[in-house]
Amino acid sequence: MTVLEQRGTYRPAPPPAWQPRTDPAPLLPDAEPYRVLGTGAADRADPGLLRTLHARLVTGRRYNAQATALTRQGRLAVYPSSTGQEACEVAAALVLADRDWLFPSYRDTLAVITRGVDPVQALTLLRGDWHTGYDPYEHRVAPLSTPLATQLPHAVGLAHAARLRGDDVVALAMVGDGGTSEGDFHEALNFAAVQRAPVVFLVQNNGFAISVPLAKQTAAPSLAHKAVGYGMPGRLVDGNDAVAVHEVLSDAVRHARAGGGPVLVEAVTYRLEAHTNADDATRYRGDAEVETWRGHDPVDLLERELTRRGLLDEDARRAVREESEALAADLRARLHEDPVLDPMDLFAHVYAEPTPHLREQRELLRAELAAEAEANADAEAQAAPEGATR
Amino acid sequence: MTTATAAGAATAARPATLAQALTRALRDAMAADPAVHVLGEDVGALGGVFRVTDGLAAEFGEDRCTDTPLAEAGILGTAVGMAMYGLRPVVEMQFDAFAYPAFEQLVSHVARMRNRTRGAMPLPLTIRIPYGGGIGGVEHHSDSSEAYYMATPGLHVVTPATVADAYGLLRAAIASDDPVVFLEPKRLYWSKDAWDPEEPTPVEPVGRAVVRRPGRSATLVTYGPSLPVCLEAAEAARAEGWDLEVVDLRSLVPFDDETVCASVRRTGRAVVVHESGSFGGPGGEIAARVTERCFHHLEAPVLRVAGLDIPYPPPMLERHHLPGVDRVLDAVGRLQWEAES
Ligand SMILES: Cc1ncc(C[n+]2csc(CCOP(=O)(O)OP(=O)(O)O)c2C)c(N)n1
Ligand SMILES: [Mg+2]
């Protein structure tokens, strides 16, 4: 039997034999976002996992702060910060096996570096020296996607292809709350469900699409409920509870890997910073709201638990602090160096072989650059002081 | 499944339709490479609304020739993911105007994935789109959408006009490591040529035009559905004393300046003929290229014979829209012949 034949055959049944094709009850999300930290379930959380999550979240917070600072110094063109969303970013990367694939959006560079991509390469798009700075095959991370939700069908196709090949690869695709209104979100979820593709869709509901709040985005009971319409399970989780996100995503990955088909996870979180450094969030939200969310900070929630369990002594704190400062210092140092640009690269990767038309344009640019270099050399020679010797 | 004939066997050229040659190309490509997957709407049991995928699901199974949900962006978007994983998807869009939902995937991802990733992630995928009018289709079934695709860097855009090219170009498109928009002239689907499926045309690289009819007086530059119109016009022009050369572009991107300009330099006059509208259409680009390269060889401005710049008309009026033999001959007549005498 082929992979697709396992979907079962559907034929319109003659009336009145109608019956629902799937029982919707098991697909429905919980009434409340799932939480672990601060509940009785926290006692069961593995100390090793808690420590790892803590180290990654603290480092991630520092990474976000450093990247935002680099925009002010003109070293990054723009940075969409994931401050406040570190639990989702980190967990999304940690739940995947090496052979799995991550499909990030522009906001997800923290997930990308947590998966092992070099931070400077992850920031290439936002620095502006190229579009994608890393080889997607090296860590199995798709390029950061800017057109909203367009990365979701890619994840479905890749996961489906892997399944056709008999590989037990899972794709985890990230999207924002605003992105769920896009047509590609719908098409991707529908495809995935029909093909039972091993995909986990992680929606980070951070409250806003730039300035537009969720209420203007959807009338659904929750974004997780959307899953039911496609015939896949929807899960609702507290996106600031790193342990809960890790658990829910791990379950979803396991479910997908075992052939159970796709899962939609809505992680309820909050974007503590503006949309990007170029945005002014005071135009559409008040400080009181932000302060409330600061009281439910993912790093604090985790630290409270580690402290309660006596898992965070001064040495551990220092080690994490040093690691984050080292990451920040490395970012500063490497991003303060000007990137080496070769304008000829513009023509190198449009097609496998440049078309005759592009070869002509390449020669035009080459001539322009040569003329520019000559003019610069002349200007320098003229600017040299009178009678200066070499 | 082999395509080679036993040595010494006589060739068996029989009349075959352009659609049959396309089917054969898909079948041979699928047999030759297990990475080739066909997906689209109704491509399975039905064999596609034009029957181009006829028999593929039966022969290769549903996993290789897949009926997808009705979602063009989803079809192309998942094909991108499949190509990322090493497959070679061949996507069928049901009609020209129904490819538009996939436009964002095409422009924002398909066309630029190689470029975005500095060559690390090329996308070898073929997007087959039946296009053009002349089949009596009601609205949204007859668009000539090539100008949109031509204007998108990163895509190859090819279109066959003969049975042999339908086979050769589709095999080449599927073999290409770049995305290819493969435009199938609907009204030529049922056109026939003597063609031997056991000795299919050699697969040429995409990007070469061909002189379909040699001539000395003027060059008709055309492609796809307008080729038969131009050949017919060239025959009719003999009565006027004009010996017209007809160039079939076959590929709009890459554009074969060499073949086109060599022809225009020989004849000194050129008319571009296509169904697509003239304003912002391919003819403007072609006329500009010819003028830039062959100015001193030209005896007259390059003229365009194109569809009208109107939304595609209802079937009962479409003959007024489509460039026909008379319009082509009128244009040839306006190529300033009087200056010669
Ligand atoms: C197709 C498309 N439309 C508009 C935009 C411009 N845009 C960039 S981010 C954004 C908001 C997205 O919000 P959401 O999906 O919630 O993600 P978040 O930024 O909150 O992470 C918009 C409108 C875009 N990138 N793509
Ligand atoms: Mg959002």
From TrEMBL, chain A:
<keyword id="KW-0560">Oxidoreductase</keyword>
<dbReference type="InterPro" id="IPR029061">
    <property type="entry name" value="THDP-binding"/>
</dbReference>
<dbReference type="InterPro" id="IPR001017">
    <property type="entry name" value="DH_E1"/>
</dbReference>
<feature type="region of interest" description="Disordered">
    <location>
        <begin position="1"/>
        <end position="28"/>
    </location>
</feature>
<dbReference type="GO" id="GO:0004739">
    <property type="term" value="F:pyruvate dehydrogenase (acetyl-transferring) activity"/>
</dbReference>
<dbReference type="Pfam" id="PF00676">
    <property type="entry name" value="E1_dh"/>
</dbReference>
<feature type="domain" description="Dehydrogenase E1 component">
    <location>
        <begin position="62"/>
        <end position="339"/>
    </location>
</feature>
<keyword id="KW-0786">Thiamine pyrophosphate</keyword>
<keyword id="KW-0670">Pyruvate</keyword>
<protein>
    <submittedName>
        <fullName>Pyruvate dehydrogenase E1 component alpha subunit</fullName>
        <ecNumber>1.2.4.1</ecNumber>
    </submittedName>
</protein>
<dbReference type="InterPro" id="IPR050771">
    <property type="entry name" value="Alpha-ketoacid_DH_E1_comp"/>
</dbReference>
<feature type="region of interest" description="Disordered">
    <location>
        <begin position="370"/>
        <end position="390"/>
    </location>
</feature>
<dbReference type="InterPro" id="IPR017596">
    <property type="entry name" value="PdhA/BkdA"/>
</dbReference>
UniProtKB/TrEMBL annotation, chain B:
<dbReference type="GO" id="GO:0003863">
    <property type="term" value="F:branched-chain 2-oxo acid dehydrogenase activity"/>
</dbReference>
<dbReference type="GO" id="GO:0000287">
    <property type="term" value="F:magnesium ion binding"/>
</dbReference>
<dbReference type="InterPro" id="IPR029061">
    <property type="entry name" value="THDP-binding"/>
</dbReference>
<dbReference type="Pfam" id="PF02779">
    <property type="entry name" value="Transket_pyr"/>
</dbReference>
<protein>
    <recommendedName>
        <fullName>3-methyl-2-oxobutanoate dehydrogenase (2-methylpropanoyl-transferring)</fullName>
        <ecNumber>1.2.4.4</ecNumber>
    </recommendedName>
</protein>
<dbReference type="InterPro" id="IPR009014">
    <property type="entry name" value="Transketo_C/PFOR_II"/>
</dbReference>
<dbReference type="InterPro" id="IPR005475">
    <property type="entry name" value="Transketolase-like_Pyr-bd"/>
</dbReference>
<dbReference type="GO" id="GO:0009083">
    <property type="term" value="P:branched-chain amino acid catabolic process"/>
</dbReference>
<dbReference type="Pfam" id="PF02780">
    <property type="entry name" value="Transketolase_C"/>
</dbReference>
<keyword id="KW-0560">Oxidoreductase</keyword>
<dbReference type="InterPro" id="IPR033248">
    <property type="entry name" value="Transketolase_C"/>
</dbReference>
<dbReference type="GO" id="GO:0007584">
    <property type="term" value="P:response to nutrient"/>
</dbReference>
<feature type="domain" description="Transketolase-like pyrimidine-binding">
    <location>
        <begin position="16"/>
        <end position="191"/>
    </location>
</feature>
